[in-house]
Amino acid sequence: NNMEDKQKIALNIIRSCRIGNIVCKIAERLNLSLIDAMRKFYESATCREFHDSKSGLYLQGDYYIVAEFMDEYNKTTQV
To answer: Model pTM?
Structure first.
C-alpha cells in the first residue's frame, strides 16, 4: 500500500532525527565523542528496541530513551 510505505518512510526519518538528539545526550553523560556515543547506542539493545515498532520505545521521549540506554550501559559495564 502506497500510504503505508509513506508512513514507514516518515517514521524512519523521524527516528533518524531523534537519534541525533539521543546520541548527543549520551555523549554528554558519558563524556564521549559523538562517534563513540553513536557506536555505543547502535550496538545496544535499547537501539534495537527503539527501531522495533512492536516495542513502542520509539513513542517515549528522548530523555526516557537515554535513561533506558544508561541503565543498560551501567549493567553491562559493571564488573
So the answer is: 0.83
Tens-digit pLDDT profile for residues 17-33: 899 999 999 999 999 99
Phi, psi dihedral angles at 52 (to 5 degrees): -90, 110
Nine-digit cell at 15?
527516528
SS (H, E, C) the chain: CHHHHHHHHHHHHHHHHHHHHHHHHHHHHHCCCHHHHHHHHHCCHHHHHHHCCCCCHHHCCHHHHHHHHHHHHHHHHCC
Residue corresponding to grid cell 540506554: 69
